[in-house]
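Sample log: HET-domain-containing protein.
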Amino acid sequence: MNIAHRFTLIIEPLVDTSNDIKTIPSILQVIDCSGSAPCFQLLREWLRKCDQDHRECSRRKRYWPTRVILVGGSDPNKLKLQERANEKELEDYIVLSHCWGTPTDEEKERFCTTSKNYDDRVNEGFSYDDLPKTFQDAVRVTQELKKEYLWIDSLCIIQGDENDWENEAGLMEKVFASAYCTIAASSAPNWGVGFLKQNQSSQYIQIQDISGKQVNVCDFNKDVDEGPLNKRAWVLQERVLSCRTIHFSAEQTYWECGEGVRCENLTRLKCPTGRQYFVLDPNFPKRLTESGYDRTVDFVQYLFEKYSRCGLTNKSDRDTAISGLVKRIESALDTKGGYGVFRCFFSRLLLWKQSDEEKAALIDYKGRKVPSWSWMAYNGGIDFMSNSRLMAPNSEELQFDREALTVKVRQFKNCRPERYGILADSGRVGSVWFDTRANNRFKHCVVVGMRQDEKKDSQKTYYILIVKKKLQGEGYERLGVGEIEARYVSKEGNPGKLV
């Protein structure tokens, strides 16, 4: 039975993704389905229904990229790079989110738009046959969805031109947020593999739910979230900013929009109420502005933790590859931010620690300075140690600045630090996590917050940044983060700069 036939006959069941299907009494049955390239009729129906019924998903700001690829000409094999024209005269465009892989210099020269071939691609055009397989598949999907314009980063940004790259990187937020929809090559580890699987035999697992109905099962987390594409740092921003996305996974095709997720097997996953609810926001971060302080800061911490674990070909892009999301959050929450910290969540976002067992190396930003208090200074994943019980100290003691923090630096009292524990005569009184390898000589800290439910000074716990004076120049630099009983930190302190 082909997918189109299933679409006309099967009443779409509803699956709540908050349930673990292992706990539901079920009868498992494997259903064989004839497989080929995804049914474009189904994709068009998903788009039509979203356009018609999902008001929030279709409310996009009118914007056009600097360049797009014309794929809807009279000859489907003839493509053309088109520069921005009068925006009122231009139609919808689709964007591709994909993994580059590790192309050779020869492949970059052959496939990418460069200063050498730019004029030819604008004036004469180029051939569909001259593109790598992933790009060819994106062209085909765009044409099948009856759209004429497609945006692909390596074709629409002039590669090797630093000025063009800096300009276009700053516009990436608008490119993805304003697109008609995003094509996600979720199964393709590089641009040469492609994502439309020909003659692939699909198998759907069906379970019997509590009411006795037969429900098709799809594993969106495994197929999409754990796929090769979503392990890339740039893709997190692309996915969150996209108003709707078609994910082409190795197992089946998924539709994702503000109303939830639809599967190729005609199962619909209800929009979750947790962190994923904000990821699916077609007008990100509108839902954050309506969620309250605790849920918002929890999502921001989740976003940064997830992003920090994603891979980057160029490590120095760590601050750039999420800049579009940061700008959006800044604007929506009417706050300022920089290097992984927002002023409105200042104390909570300073309390990060590296999640890798091996301490990550500092990133070479090629002349650009990243403050020592920022997790963006290091490669590798992070976790935040603060919780909802954190209360910030006096705002006069901790003031936000993009380059340096104006802080009150305090001394430890009688403590003998080890690598993971802070010891006093009475025993262990705190813990510390260092940013680099054993750095156990310190005597200064900055109090970032304390637990709200502790009233007596003798019982208070401080959340602190471990700092030391810079060897050269003024100010202090961060060594790590920790927590300690308040009575072991001096009440007095001297103002300083943490840089």
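Observation: Residues 291-499 form one domain.
Observation: The chain has a mean pLDDT of 83.
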